[in-house]
Every structure is written in C-alpha cells, then in structure tokens.
Amino acid sequence: MHINPDFIGFGAVTVDDFIHLTHFPEQESKVKIEAKYRYGGGLAGTALVAAARLGTNPAYFGVLGDDELSEFVIDAFHKHGVQTHLCLYEQHAEPTHATILVDKTSGSRTVLYQNRYFQLPPISSITSDKFADCSMIFIDSASLPIIDHVLALAHSLEIPVLADIENKSITQHQKSLDAIDHLILNIKTAQEITGEQNPNSILRALETSKRKVGVITAGAEGCWFKVTGNPIFHMPAFPIKAVDTTGCGDVFHGAYAAALLRGSKIFQAVIQASAAAGMKATRPGGRAGIPTLSQLEQFIKSHEEIQPELID
C-alpha cells in the first residue's frame, strides 16, 4: 500500500558501477582493479533519495523493466523510502547503466554509459490524478520530451516545478524554461543557456515573471541565487574534505526540495542544500554521503558562520 507522495520526480535513474584503478589504463595495457562498487544514481534518482532521507515522501514516475538493473533501482529506491507505484513497466526498458573508471592517483573519473533502453512515461499516462497531494514536481534534462506537458499540468494544479537541466537543449522549450518555478543550474550549463559568463548576469538573464528563484551552483565556489524581484546572494561552500563529488548537484536539488516541503524559506533552503551537497562529497558514490535531517541540522549548527552574502 502506498501513500500519496508530496514530491514526484521525472527523469534519469542510473546504475553506476565504479571501478577503482591505480592509474588510468593506456591503450593495449592491463590494469588491476583495486575495488569495484555498484551504486544507484541519476539526476532524478539521487534527488529523490536525498529528499526522502531529509523527511519527504517522494515517488519516481518513470519506466522500468524486468531486468537486473531495474530490480537494483527499485530495491535501492525502496531501501531509501522512495515509492515506485507510479512507475510503468515495459519488458525491454532499462535505466541508464554507467561504468565509471576512477583513477585513485589523481581522483579523476571517466564515465562510460549506455541509455539506449531508457524510456520516458508516455504523456497519456501523466494525468492530474497522479498528482494528488503532491506539493512539488522534479524534472531533469532526460525528460525534455515531456517537459511541456508536465509543467503545464503541474501549474494547472498550482504545483511548483523544480528543474535540474544539464544541457542547452532546454532552449528548444523556451516557454517551459521561462516558467520553471525553481531553476537550479550548474554554472557551465547556465553560461551556455544565457550566453552570459558571470553569475550576476546569468541570474538576471534567467529571471522571468513566472520564475520564483534561480540558483547557479559552482562546486567549491559555492552558489548564487536570486528570488525574482530581489537582490542576488552568494552562498559560500561549506568547508569539507571532498572524497567524491559524484551526485553533489543532485543532492543539492533533493535537499532544496525537502527544505521547502518542510516549510523552510528559500534562504534557508539554499543553506540546507549547500550543506547537504558538501556532506555528500565526503563519501564515495552518489548517495552514501547523503545526511539525515538530524545530521544536516547538526552540521549547519557547527558552521553557523557560513551564511549567504548580499552581492547586488
């Protein structure tokens, strides 16, 4: 039996096989595998897990199959409290599968992936009854073919949309881009979309009458955010010893959503999202380092001096 979710996510879920090597292999060479791990990942997948760990009741709305990879995704979701009752099942559907080579000497990564069997739910299946009791929708770059429908339906029900976009193709859906309520972009993608280079100019270019807030993330440089009609703030990154930054952006999105769903204001949501992303970076894999709510609150309390700074 399921409970109607308060946070529904559309988009990428992956199964990530991490292979740790002493050094990156040259052509025609042999390299011993030091360690091998399998983790769940993906923009939507990790954002939903982060939101669940931080107190929300999320669900994934996607298409999975009857294969080993799909079973891994479902098991991982259930383990972390993400519901899958909205999922559709097709015999030949699969999540994206990535093999990630990690050079232990330099810490660099090389990602090999395939997503030829990844499917999105058909528009006909995305109906208003699926959104009962939902308070926020998440959508990512993998969902661009259905973004216009999802956004229009969500707004017709007065449900805000949070988006994680990683490529310039969103400009082919300019009307939807302009209408996204909570738009959180990494700085590289934001530069490509707007043609602007510095965060202040980017945020001004992204501001629209329908936008609630724009956020630009830049890893160790922190993030910048602007509530429509208000000044720009810079949020410094929390001081942490990074082990693996895989999934930090996804955790940022999930923690941000969870904060808003718990009733926090945007100012506090950005602080919590920044802290959660930093904490995740202290553990390997995309999800292992995601904090619980109590861990997050304790971490923030121990770094009370880290606060957003008024920029302009």
How is this structure best described in words?
This protein has 312 residues and is α/β, with parallel strands linked by helices. It has a single domain, classed as UDP-N-acetylmuramoyl-L-alanine:D-glutamate ligase, CATH 3.40.1190.20. It has helices at residues 43-53, 68-80, 144-156, 174-179, 187-194, 199-206, 248-261, 266-280, 293-301; strands at residues 7-10, 14-21, 33-41, 58-60, 63-64, 88-89, 96-103, 109-114, 136-140, 161-164, 182-186, 213-217, 223-227, 232-235, 309-310. α5 (187-194) crosses α6 and α8 packs across α9 (293-301). The protein is globular, with a radius of gyration of 19 Å. The model has no long low-confidence stretch (mean pLDDT 93).
| Overall mean confidence score, pLDDT | 93
Name the helix and strand elements from N-terminus to C-terminus, one letter apiece.
EEEHEEHEEEEHEHEHHEEEHHHE
CATH class: Alpha Beta
Helix content percent band:
25-40%
Spans where pLDDT lies below 50 across 5 or more residues: none
Task: Assign the CATH superfamily.
Answer: Ribokinase
The N- to C-terminal Cα distance equals 50 Å
What's the tally of helices? 9
Q: Give the number of domains.
A: 1
Largest sheet: 9 strands, mixed
- Percent in strands: 15-25%
Tally of strands: 15
Output the CATH topology: UDP-N-acetylmuramoyl-L-alanine:D-glutamate ligase
- Radius of gyration from the alpha-carbon trace, in angstroms: 19 Å
The helix-and-strand class reads alpha/beta
As laid out across the biggest beta sheet, the strand order is: 4-1-9-10-11-12-13-14-15
